[in-house]
Amino acid sequence: MAKKDKFYNNRLFSAVIMIVIAVGLLFGYQLTRKSEHIARKLTTPVAIDPIDSSSCIICHTSEAIIGSVVMESSEGHGGQGG
Amino acid sequence: MYLVSKEFLDTAHGQLGCINCHGGENAQTQAEAHATMNPYPSADIDGICSKCHGGVTETFEFSIHNNIKGMENGLMAFSGKDSMPDSPAHAEAFGMNCINCHATCGDCHVSRPKPYTGGLISQHEFFKTPPMEETCYGCHGARNAGEFMGEVGFSGDVHFEKGMTCMDCHPIENFHGDGQEYDSMWEQPLPSCLDCHEDEKPGNSEIQAHNVHGEDLSCQVCHAQANNNCFECHVDYNEDKTALKSSSQTKLMFKIGLNPNPTPERPYKYVTLRHIPTAKDTFDSVEEGMLPNFDNINNWKYSPTHNIQKNTFQNESCESCHENDKLFLNEKDLWESDSEENKRLIVPRP
Question: pTM for the full model?
Answer without folding.
Answer: 0.83
